[in-house]
Amino acid sequence: MALAWFAGTGFAPAPPASPAPAPGFAPAPGFAPAPPATTDPSAAPAPPTTPATPPTAAPLPTAAPPPTATSTPSPAPPAAPGATPPLSPQPPFPDENELPLAPPPHSHPSVPPPPHRYGDPGSTELSLALGYTRQTGFFGGGGVRRFVISGIAPGIEASVQRSDGQPTTGLVLASLKLVPVRGDMAALIITGRAGRAFIFDHDDGWAAGGSLGAIVFLSPGVGLEVGYSILWLMPRHFCADLVSCRIEGPELGLRVVF
Questions:
Q1: Residues 203-232: what's their mean pLDDT?
Q2: Interacting residues of 129 by C-beta distance below 8 A, sequence separation 6+
Q3: 3-state class (DSSP) for residue 2
Q4: Which candidate, 108, 143, 150, 147, places its Cα nearest to that of 129?
Q5: Which of 114, 143, 115 is closest to 256 using CA atoms?
Q6: Bridge-based pairing state of the strands 186-199 and 205-219
Q7: Chain segment 85-110, per-residue pLDDT in tens
Q8: What pLDDT sits at residue 68?
Q9: E strand or H helix that includes residue 3
């Protein structure tokens, strides 16, 4: 309604006022202000900006479930007829100039020591003897020997012999035992003896002789020796008043070797 009233009265609106120059500022001659910026209707409006979507992480692979005890592997597919089976790779050929590798230390198998036998060097023998002679009756004694060489053992023996009606006789003899034949179950024994003979209420003299026998092993290191021994008494006047100048008879002895 107001617009119609203004149109009926012939009122014309005043032109827009130009901006007044700032005090103290005069535009240079020939200066024209730039026209106001207008929008180009033909220009296409800029597309609205869309926010960038962040990259999505790839899903992690899931581990396959462990096979159960009842599951059985599927059999391999049969080979096609006429197909060549794959060949295993051949080992590389040795180099002619390559030095052989040294064997590792202590790679050889351990060899068990040989079994210990009677008469081995370094072994010691303890002996206990019992016997009987026609001249002096029963006797008993003992001794010790050491094998310094295989099958050779020097030692010392002592024995006492007594019988009814005969004087008591004591013998202290050095001995040398030889083992010419030996085995795991038995051995042949040769023993030489020589030393001093003591007779109660009688002059002392000398005795020399030996014995021959065999030892049968009851267990490792323990044996039973059976033999026959003979001793000659010297000098002649020493045994002139005795029953005989010879002492002989069987003997039985226990031998312990270690």
A1: 92
A2: 139, 140, 141, 142, 143, 157, 159, 251, 252, 253, 254
A3: helix
A4: 143
A5: 143
A6: antiparallel
A7: 666 666 666 666 666 666 666 656 67
A8: 55
A9: helix 2-9
Class of domain 124-257 as given by CATH: mainly beta
* Structural domain spans, the chain: 124-257
Residues 6+ apart with CB under 8 A from 82: none
Residue of 188, 175, 178 whose CA lies nearest to 217? 188
Comparing 1 with 234, which gets the higher pLDDT?
234
CA-closest candidate to residue 187, choices 152, 163, 160? 152
pLDDT interval class at 238 (50, 70, 90) = confident
d(CA 243, CA 235): 15
Integer Cα distance of 242 and 245 in angstroms: 7
* Separation of alpha carbons 147 and 221, rounded Å: 14
179, pLDDT greater than 90: yes
3-state helix, strand, coil in the chain (%, to 5): 5, 40, 55
